[in-house]
Amino acid sequence: MAYSPLTDKIIPAHASNYSVGRSGQKVIKITPHHVAGNLSIETIGALFQNPTRAASSNYGIGSDGRIGGYVDEDNRAWTSSSATNDRQAITIEVANDGGADTSWHVSDKAIDALVSLCVDICRRHNIKSLVYDGTPNGTVTRHNMFAATACPGGYLQSRLPYITDEINKQLAPPPPKPEPPAGGTYTVKKGDNLSKIAKKFDTTWQILYELNKDVIGSDPNIIYAGQVLRLPDNSGTPEKPQPEMTLLEVVRRTMRGEYGNLPERKAAIEELGFDYAEVQRQVNINAKYGNWNWDSIKLY
Q1: At what angle do helices 154-171 and 108-124 cross, to 10 degrees?
Q2: Pick from 211, 241, 271: which residue ends a domain?
Q3: For residue 3, is it within any domain?
Q4: Does 202 lie in the same domain as 159?
Q5: What is the value of pTM for the model shown?
Q6: CA distances, 216 to each of 90, 92, 219, 236, 300 (Å)
């Protein structure tokens, strides 16, 4: 037995009202019908259990949005006055919450259920998309394409382009995720700073900051947990610079503020290969003696 998992109730049609199998045809079409009345799925099912009915459908949908199953999908229901169509189609009777004076209106709940049912059918039968072109060649067809009948009613017929579009939207694969930057990304964690992150990814905090100014803002010393930072593509980025600096030059640059404040300053100095405690000792002594000019700063 093959019914949609969305089926609320299975009421098997009488065996005299459908054909076993599909004569080797695959399911490639959907044919919505209307029942010309506000019938429940139970009432529709009872009609198809009458052995003299000589008609059936695979499914029925009530105005409340419930779905009934009557002829399993492996078999051909007798619905559309066309054996050729019904061998290839899943047929669905839809209740009307309005009469002929409303062009046989169909409730929003029934329309929504019809869309959901069709999406499920298409996925299970590997139908990538549906085509409603107003002809029997399309993959959404109508009863009045094959017989002189008002079915599927003016309202449902007018909604078939919308229904087809909604089904196809849900069948469409999700858009591909944008490719991350060549070097990937990193999500800032509590306690992180640029120097710590740079060390982890074998780069410098300056390079990280240049890549992420739009995220970080004007102060490289302030980052927040949850921020997503772009990482450099180390495969194409020159190795981080290793300038030949003396202890004196590092002390001078520290006093000039080039390495920022703690903890970035400590990380930057250690990254250059110098003992932070010694650099800070020299800074403190120079500050004590008022040596703030570049040339007056010296080692003690």
Answers
A1: 50
A2: 241
A3: no
A4: no
A5: 0.62
A6: 56, 56, 7, 24, 38
Question: What amino acid is encoded at 56 in this protein?
Answer: S
Whether 43 and 192 share a structural domain: no
- Tell me the pLDDT tens digit for each residue of 208-266: 999 999 999 989 999 998 899 999 876 334 444 444 679 999 999 898 888 888 788 88
Residues 117, 67: contact at Cβ < 8 Å? yes
Residue 207 token pair: 């390079």
Residue with tokens 């102060």: 219
Domain assignment of residue 221, given as a range? 178-241
Tokens 């093959």 correspond to what residue? 2
Q: Which of 80, 224, 240 is nearest to 147 (CA)?
A: 80
Measured distance CA(292)–CA(300) in Å, rounded: 15
Q: Do 86 and 47 have their domain in common?
A: yes
Q: What are phi and psi of 99, to 5 degrees?
A: -90, -160
Residue 243 to residue 93: CA distance in whole angstroms: 79
